[in-house]
Amino acid sequence: MKSLQPDPGAEMCMRTLGKLCEELGPDSVDEYILMFKSLWPSRVARLRDALSSNDRDMGEDAALSLRSSATMAGAYELAGLALQLQQAFREGTVGARTELVRSIEYSGKMVLRVLETPGFTERALRTYRESVSA
């Protein structure tokens, strides 16, 4: 089993949120992070509901929603898992769904730990600025 220590380099692309910070301001990014965190439990619940009811449409929709928000947050590993789950629902691949939901839950916990790190928004902005000035 993976360690529960957050690894911002692996779990998040700080430049993505840093760029968003540059464009919209740190307060907007902080609001986005709060929204991402507050919606996490309902996103996971929708995935589980779709899994248990074998509802392909709900599963695709829930996975797409998660994929979009994860991509915007720079959580590319999480977004990739959501894409795989979306495809599994679309193609009717039942066997992979349970493991993908478990992987999404784990990856999401790591993303949340990174986002909750004090000073994350400021570090993301600094990382982005350094990347464009290099």
UniProtKB/TrEMBL annotation:
Domain named HPt: residues: 25-128
Cleavable signal peptide: none
UniProt GO BP: phosphorelay signal transduction system
Top-level division of the source organism's lineage: Bacteria
Pfam families assigned to the protein according to its UniProt record, in alphabetical order: Hpt (PF01627)
Family matches, as InterPro entries: HPT_dom_sf, Sig_transdc_His_kin_Hpt_dom
Name of the protein in question: Hpt domain-containing protein
Lineage, opening ranks: Bacteria, Bacillati, Actinomycetota, Actinomycetes, Micrococcales
